[in-house]
Amino acid sequence: TVKKLQDQKHDMEREIKNLHRRLREESAEWRQFQADLQTAVVIANDIKSEAQEEIGDLKRRLHEAQEKNEKLTKELEEIKSRKYARDSRERVSLGRGVQFWKSSGLTPEVPKSSREDPCFKKLLYPGFPRST
Fold it and tell me: How far apart are CA 35 and CA 41, in angstroms?
């Protein structure tokens, strides 16, 4: 029985040694897992920060583009308005000139080549060219 007890003791010591070794290995693996996880968290935070910065930059650029679009739209409307006003004044001015000549009974001296010009005919004859 002493021999049996010594064998059991020896088996138990070997089992304890194996358990200690296994505990050290698993502890090392756990520490490595924690370190890897921490690294992954740091990388994820860096990616998140970069993405947030890029979103901020894109929002700023979008806002600038919208402001520029509004400004250009206003400029275009102003240009259209000025052109319309100028064209209206020119039509009124030309119309008054034609009316003057028609009402005075006088005929302005216009070269024959100009009289054949469709623009000239349109001024003198508002319905020109007549649709058939």
Answer: 10
76 in a structural domain: yes
Q: Could you give the C-alpha distances from 125 to 3, 93, 94, 98, 130, in angstroms and in order?
A: 136, 16, 12, 10, 9
Structure-token pair, residue 85: 């006003």
Q: Is residue 20 part of a domain?
A: yes
Residue 49 belongs to what H/E stretch?
A: helix 2-104
- Residue located via tokens 């400004």: 71
Residue 45 belongs to domain spanning: 2-89
Confidence of residue 96 (pLDDT cuts 50, 70, 90): low
Give the whole-angstrom CA distance, residue 114 versus residue 81: 31
Query: Does any domain span residue 132?
Result: no
Q: Count of domains in the chain?
A: 1
Q: What is the mean pLDDT of residues 62-82?
A: 95
Q: Which two tokens stand for residue 111?
A: 């070269």
* pTM score, whole prediction: 0.47
Q: How many residues are recorded in the chain? A: 132
Pairwise CA distance, residues 41 & 32, whole Å: 14
